[in-house]
Design a protein that fits this description.
This is SJCHGC00949 protein. The chain is globular. Helix 2 (53-67) links the parallel strand 1 (37-40) and strand 2 (73-77). It contains 10 helices and 5 strands; from the N terminus they run H-E-H-E-H-E-H-E-E-H-H-H-H-H-H. It is mainly alpha-helical.
Length: 287
């Protein structure tokens, strides 16, 4: 609704138009030649082939990672939403890290609802930058006619600027859609708890990097990021495994794929010496 998907899709279309010598719908543009424009967008399954939404995501992502070069343009929209939050975030982090790595370093646009993913800019400064789409939200939530109608207006500005969104406007959109008041209140309660955890999550990540700069000892309290970083070098191998399983077993389930990721995670944590709170992390990835 904010326009981020439209924005990144438009960049791909404009790049293609410019490269074939066409006029582009811009008053001004800075463009560079690319050897390929690759996209992983949309969310759909292929029931006739026994391919789930998540498996379709992985197959398309695998095709991108196999073909990408430093001169490619890559557009990824909402990677990881077809599976659990932890696995989805871990894969999104690992794919984004891979694309931004010095070995690849292609120009990429990566739209996501995983707010924690914004901390990748701290992990990879000068290689990753955060952008946000702007909107205005009225603060007057007084009941207008009945308990289901609120005077809360979300106005999308359709502008992009550097920075991180300070909050999600999903509940405001839910009000506009007319969801019952009791459902909205319950959603607000649950969201407030998640926001508190997310705030702690981001603060710990900043403290982690501050401790690195100070050259002091530290414990990495960032389980999801730690797991993702450990998995990053193995990402292509994980996707290879998924594809081979899909080719031999058309009834492959999402549970079997996530179990494979969890098993690889456990192996990495047990085999590679590190300063991570291993027992706690292993509990996070138990089946």
């Amino acid at each position: 609704m904010g326009g981020k998907s439209t924005y990144i899709h438009s960049v791909g279309i404009i790049a293609a138009m410019a490269q074939i010598g066409s006029f582009v719908p811009c008053s001004y543009a800075e463009l560079m030649p690319v050897d390929a424009i690759m996209a992983r967008v949309g969310a759909a399954d292929y029931q006739s082939r026994g391919v789930s939404t998540f498996l379709a995501e992985m197959l398309e992502t695998s095709a991108v990672l196999r073909s990408v070069t430093p001169n490619s343009l890559v557009i990824i929209d909402e990677l990881g939403r077809g599976t659990s939050t932890y696995d989805g975030f871990g894969l999104a982090w690992a794919v984004a890290s891979y694309l931004a790595s010095p070995e690849v370093g292609c120009f990429s646009l990566f739209a996501t609802h995983f707010h924690e993913l914004t901390s990748l800019a701290y992990h990879m400064p000068k290689r990753v930058a955060n952008l946000r789409v702007l909107c205005n939200v009225s603060n007057n939530n007084e009941i207008v006619q009945d308990e289901n109608e609120f005077d809360a207006k979300v106005t999308m500005l359709y502008k992009v600027e550097p920075g991180v969104c300070s909050r999600s406007y999903g509940l405001d959109v839910a009000r506009l859609a007319g969801l019952p008041m009791e459902v909205i209140k319950q959603a607000e309660y649950q969201a407030s708890k998640d926001e508190e955890l997310e705030s702690i999550w981001l603060k710990l990540d900043k403290e982690y990097f501050k401790s690195l700069e100070d050259e002091t000892e530290f414990i990495h309290f960032f389980p999801a990021v730690s797991i993702a970083n450990e998995l990053c070098p193995r990402l292509v191998q994980i996707l290879d495994h998924v594809i081979k399983e899909a080719e031999s077993d058309k009834n492959l389930s999402v549970d079997s794929i996530t179990s494979t990721v969890a098993q690889l995670t456990r192996e990495l944590l047990l085999q590679k010496p590190n300063n991570l709170p291993t027992d706690y992390l292993l509990n996070l990835v138990k089946n």
